[in-house]
Amino acid sequence: MQDTSRSATWFERARHVIPGGVNSPARSFRAVGGDPPIVMARGEGAYFFDVDGHRYIDYLAGFGPLVLGHAHPRVLDAIRQAAADGAMWGTPAPFEILLAERLVHDVEGLDQVRLTTTGTEAVMSAIRLARAFTGRSVVVKFEGAYHGHSDGMLVKAGSGASTVGTQDSLGVPAGVVQDVISLPYNDVEILTRTMDQIGDQVACILAEPIVGNMGIVPPREGYLQAMRDAAHKVGALLIFDEVITAFRFGYGAVGPALGVVPDLYAMGKIIGGGLPAGAYGGRFDVMQYVSPLGGMFQAGTFAGNPLSSSAGLATLDVLREDQPYARMEQLAETLEQGILQAAHDYGQTITINRAGSALTVFFGPQAVYDYDTAKQADGGQFARFHQLMLAQGIYLAPSRFEALFVSAAHQPSDIDETIEACRKSFAQMA
């Protein structure tokens, strides 16, 4: 039967002017049962409303940035006030300096910071800086970790790259990726052996301190420290990609909270308060290599623009004052236990990985601790689950490699409604 919804109409228009009808493959529904995806009209608190007027409980959170939910009043007020003076100037501005000061003050090991417009730019720039500082070229990363879509990072990448069925992208020259080594996550022996063999060529080890792009996968005990030790033993830098994790699991960066301070950070998402923003920074001596002080060039027309900086500052203000993290984690734990119980009651075999207020449901019995085990989860079962939940007004990311994010806007009633939807979904899948 032809879909006559307004979403379908909008998506049909999109297909004619946008490749695949989406401006990011992560928004496509092809991995969970085909198109069209839902076209949203607005967000409010913990909810989406589509162009047909249907309400959804939102666990996408913009793929992470919306820790306060949609359209938080203080964030909107900050954006309006900044916009009244002009959206961007291309000059130094108070808001970007205030945001930089806040990040340096609140993130351990962040001596100086350079703002960017996206997390992809932040990671790309941090890698370039590590190469400039060490005079080496090799980057060690981990299979299934997504660090943006710069050429070198599309080597065994997770998240959207995995969802569309390509670990490596067409159009990436072989010469670009020959200096990128991708290792299994959570395996100290392989990491140590690799660094012993090629450590004198390695500029940096790059990792998410809690992986969020092959689903939520926490590090094993001691693994982050092993990364730091392995990097420093050979004179390489440790970069933590905290684009997802910074200010998500607690106020500040998650690396120090887990006992390991990196040499460099890449950040994004939450620090823009729902607008485009990124940042990279770390040790003072390393940051002196950044132009105009040093020879490592990086620039951005919209980097630190007043709108993103003001939205980011407002978001950090609310997070610092309200400290919603314990409440968010409690709601996520309730959701986790409710989903597990529902699966048990209806004979569905699942595994849930949760870190704080973010969790991933894997369909299968195996523990998930790296990319290989994440890929063993049943994508067909997840697709069916996604369809059934969507039909009941629960919006999950359209990929088995993404997370459910509980925001400060979610209420216990939202969690109850979601668990009941899970029960009905599992009942139909039985």
Automatic annotation (TrEMBL):
PROSITE patterns: AA_TRANSFER_CLASS_3 (PS00600). It comes from the Bacteria. InterPro entries: 4pyrrol_synth_GluAld_NH2Trfase (IPR004639), Aminotrans_3 (IPR005814), Aminotrans_3_PPA_site (IPR049704), PyrdxlP-dep_Trfase (IPR015424), PyrdxlP-dep_Trfase_major (IPR015421), PyrdxlP-dep_Trfase_small (IPR015422). Its cofactor is pyridoxal 5'-phosphate. It is found in: Cytoplasm. Its EC number is 5.4.3.8. This is Glutamate-1-semialdehyde 2,1-aminomutase. It comes from Sulfobacillus thermotolerans.
